[in-house]
Amino acid sequence: MAQGRVLVVAATHGNERNAPWLLEQWRRSPQLLAAAGLELQLEIGNPEAFAANRRYLDRDLNRCFRPDLLTDASHQEREVQRARMLLAEYGPDGRQPCAVAIDLHSTTSAMGNSLVVYGRRPADLALAAGIQARLGLPVYLHEADPAQTGFLVERWPAGLVIEVGPVPQGLVTATICRQTQLALEAALDTLAAAASGRLCLPQRLQVHRHQASVDLPRAADGTPLATLHPARQHQDWRPLQAGDALFWHADGSALGFSPDDPEACWPVFINEAAYGEKGIALSLCRRESWVCSPGWAEALAELLLP
Ligand SMILES: [Zn+2]
To answer: Cα(51) to centroid of ligand 1, in Å?
Structure first.
């Protein structure tokens, strides 16, 4: 594996336009991005979907990186083929192997500038903690969700998603671009510190750990019977109390929040436009504070040290 090379992906979802706009600027003028001396590969994740301004053409590229899909020759959807191409080029055993993948996304939810980490790989946690120490960004830790698997960064030795919102699909705004760049530069600064063996992690990593996803109430034929309640719109990262209005019916009545687990009260990805088809109106997290282990920074350094 080539040590130290970092893959930066934009437009894994073709209608998330901010990061690919930035990526084009960085390609034209590399000095615009503070790369901290790292060797970067800048790549459009799904060029065909990007050209069509659609999230995907055949299936969600960011759910295609499941080993069973990638190795099953009966799957020839365009996004599965693209996933195989990205791995053949930039995967750990690819032609231009990268040790780390940073996947840049935007969301219609008011997530602000945030990080998504999949599971508990020590190197990922080191990267998240390093960015959190630099910018204070919240971390959504996604795990134990059999309905949502096959994320791009999971196929690289380390990586995470930078998720910025709210911004409508298809729209580029300076605010979202600026936040995206700040988070990426903090990630690259963290990786450069790890690569030189001088990464200092904070004492603790604050995480919002995924517990469950909640769908809209629906009729038997799948028709939604309510929308998100207006009091919940753009209230990501703000805890819910039992009884808080969650959904809104056309007659003006509200359906309240009734938690299975009172601690799983921290909502994220509220009313994300792309998640309607996945049956997700919001996801619920527990908020936890984890002690950073020295082994995390060592794991990340191992991937990056020359
Ligand atoms: Zn996305």
So the answer is: 15
Quote the domain boundaries for residue 187. 6-207+291-304
Centroid of ligand 1 to alpha carbon of 294 (angstroms): 31
For residues 14 and 49, the answer to whether their CB atoms sit within 8 Å is yes
The residue written with tokens 């910025």 in the block is: 164
Are 69 and 52 in contact, with CB atoms under 8 Å apart? no
Residues facing 213 on adjacent strands: 283
Both 172 and 119 in one domain: the answer is: yes
C-alpha angle 70/213/140, rounded to 5°?
Answer: 75
Rounded to whole angstroms, how far apart are CA atoms 18 and 136?
A: 22
Q: Report CA(200)–ligand 1 centroid distance (Å).
A: 30
- Mean of all residue pLDDT scores within the chain: 97
Do 141 and 231 sit in the same domain of this protein? no
Give the per-residue pLDDT at 1. 43
Helices (H) and strands (E) in the chain, counts: 7, 12
CA of 198 to the centre of ligand 1 (A): 32
pLDDT value of position 2: 45
> Which residue reads 């039992």 in tokens?
242
CATH assignment at residue 251: 2.20.25.160
- For residue 3, pLDDT over 70 is answered with no
Angle at 125 between CA 95 and CA 298, to 5 degrees: 75
Å from CA of 85 to ligand 1 middle? 19
Strands 254-256 and 139-142: what pairing? Answer: unpaired
